[in-house]
Design brief:
about 100 residues; alpha+beta; three-stranded antiparallel beta sheet; 1 helix; 3 strands
């Protein structure tokens, strides 16, 4: 067993001592060394959803009130949910937060 390990170790050391083939590797590319793209990068598409206040069920709000999931009442006026852009008025909500008089 020792002889086999000795042979394997000797073979690995001999492989490490050989001169590398070809030119040495170049420097590591960085953001400064990479060429900029030929065409401009497109800007992201605007969000197709908006915050709508006063339409969500209790504890299912995305935010407002005191954070996500903290609305205590159905249709609480200071809690919002995301809806498709332009649909908030159709659902009976508002794009502006208001203090709810029921609290």
């Amino acid at each position: 067993m020792r002889l086999g390990m000795l042979m394997a170790t000797t073979g690995l050391l001999a492989a490490c001592e050989r001169a590398p083939e070809g030119p040495p590797p170049g420097p590591i590319p960085t953001a400064y060394s990479i060429e900029p793209p030929d065409e401009p990068v497109p800007l992201p598409i605007p969000a197709s959803r908006e915050k709508c206040y006063g339409i969500g069920p209790a504890q299912h709000n995305g935010g407002g009130a005191k954070g996500p999931g903290t609305a205590r009442l159905d249709k609480q006026r200071d809690a919002w949910v995301f809806v498709p852009r332009g649909k908030c008025g159709d659902y009976g909500g508002s794009l502006v937060s208001r203090r709810d008089p029921r609290l």
